[in-house]
Fold this sequence. Notes:
Blueprint: E1 2-7, H1 14-20, E2 23-25, E3 28-31, E4 34-36, H2 46-54, E5 60-62, H3 66-78, E6 82-87, H4 95-109, E7 115-119, H5 125-140, H6 151-163, E8 165-170, H7 175-179, E9 196-202, E10 208-215, H8 217-231, E11 239-244, H9 248-261, E12 266-271, H10 274-280, E13 285-290
Parallel strand pairs: 1-2, 1-6, 6-7, 11-12
Antiparallel strand pairs: 3-4, 3-5, 8-9, 8-13, 9-10, 11-13
Helix pairs in contact: 3-4, 5-6, 8-9
Amino acid sequence: MIRILTDTSANLPKKIAADLGIEVIPMFYYDNDVEMSCMDIEAFDDTAYYTQIKRGKRISTSQVTPQRYYDFMKPFLEKGEDVIYVGMSSGISGSFSSSEKAVEMLRSEFPERFVAALDTRGASLGEGIVAIRAAEEAAEMSLFEGKYEDPAALYRKCEELRDRMYQVFTVDDLLHLRRTGRLSNATAIVGTILNIKPLLKGNELGKIVTFKSTRGRKKAIEEMAARYDAFVENPEEQTVGIAHAMCEKDAELLKEMIMKNHPPKEILTVKYEPVTGSHVGPGALALFFMGDRDVRTK
């Protein structure tokens, strides 16, 4: 049996994770130095949280330590399960490096088991959809029944899914991404007075970059939908993801737009959880879908 693991930044609804047997490690944020995590995204009061941030409240985050990853993964290996951890991008967080250190320790302790960490080069549903697909692939390959002998094949499949994941989003203000160092081309200036809205994406290295600006929020959403129409592959076979930070109406508008020309099999809409949400800020709206192997460069 192989176990798919991920973290709370994947934004997976609790029921979906439970139904697929995906185990989730918490990412932590700090409100007035109190350590907190969000294990149930659907119960998360995003309005209260993002309203506080909008009013100037500072939320801090920290990377997960190698020891926490070690303690999280070890029980599955002790039960005789193999492990693939589907993690948040190393391009925006040091947590993935911690997971790799834990994997190294566990490989030496459990040489008979397969244990690996996958850098999704994404976050939110750019990470979560890969975890979902990994769990579905595992079930199809009978890994949960212990019949399939090469978990490395599933890991390679996950890498392919990762490379095909397009992630495009817009924010109300680049301040949050610039302040926390999550924006790679941080010299980009957005004119809030002129209602200029940035378009950002996760590039092939998993870093967040701005690539275009539009006049007005609706134009930004239209551009996101246009990128979906241009780059999506086999939409009828895939789950498309939408994540938002206290802008549910915009998420619904984006959903309507992408349903118009190339409706996918399913659309999963979630709220940005507190850790990733603290970096993108109130008003962030993101779209996640699969394209070709070079889609991250487009």
